[in-house]
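Let's inspect one such protein example.
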Amino acid sequence: MPPVRPRKLAKVPFVELADGRLQGVVSSGSDIGRVYVSSIAAGTHAYNCSTNNNRPCGGLYGAPCKHLQALAAEAVLQYGLDRVARYLRVEVPEGAGLIGCLDGSHEPAPAAMVFSRFLRHLAYLEVPDTTMPIPELHWFPAEGTVG
């Protein structure tokens, strides 16, 4: 699905609505070698943010950190506010921001699967351009065969 609006991938290179969470990978603002896995649970709005090696984010002081704010903003660019709000099961009044309407608290959440999917996503960027089939994508129907 193409993004609702173009977004820059340097700050939030990976964002998805999956596993009952808005989740993704956010680059560190201070260390180019560090990334954070951030997530917000649908319904409860419980949030978590930790480094790729499971160290908690130092910015979680009783409210969503800047990584979670960046994740939410990029999700709105990628999927649109209505879709993200519907997925998280939150009402966002006209003119309000998504993150300000969430009422959750910090709750640890698994980060390994999100980071693993991100790394798999990156691997596809290194696949050379080809018209030949890619074995791990063989289950996609060939063009013109969908009835």
Q: What stands out?
A: The helical segments are 66-79, 81-88, 112-125. The mean pLDDT is 84. DSSP finds three helices and four strands in the chain. The chain has one domain: 14-119.
